[in-house]
Specification:
single chain, 163 residues, alpha+beta, Alpha-Beta Plaits, 4-stranded antiparallel β-sheet, 9 strands
Length: 163
Amino acid sequence: MAADSSFDVVSHVDRQEVDNALNQAAKEIQQRFDFKNTDSSIRWSGESIELESNGEERVKAALDVFQSKLIRRGVSLKALDAGEPRLSGKMWKITATTKQGIDQEMAKKISKLVRDEGPKGVKCLIQGDELRVSSKSRDDLQAVQRLIKEADFDIALQFTNYR
């Protein structure tokens, strides 16, 4: 009798890749002509990312530069939660955070999708901020991965721990 195969559905962001993208964006903002004399900056503020400039359009442009660097480094934009521009004194600011983990509600949605539309015999188990999917057939697990990718949930999902 063969043992069950399984994989984990997780939502993790590589902090080092985000940090590299942030440093690249900061360098580009310092060097680009359209950001000259706008006091534009991007930096870590605790666990969040703070973008700052003297105009609303400039701070949005800085966010666009940061997002393009994230894409280039392979970080999904679904993992970035950027707020709306707000005026703080004379400067416009945007605070962005990275989303980590799958919340209970989203895990239940994914589990329900797999139960309803996935192959028979596939089991889902919610474990904290991740989801374990197991089955006797590896082909069924690959079908579940395709199903989850096609469902296009509003969070960045990765498949790890495939055994």
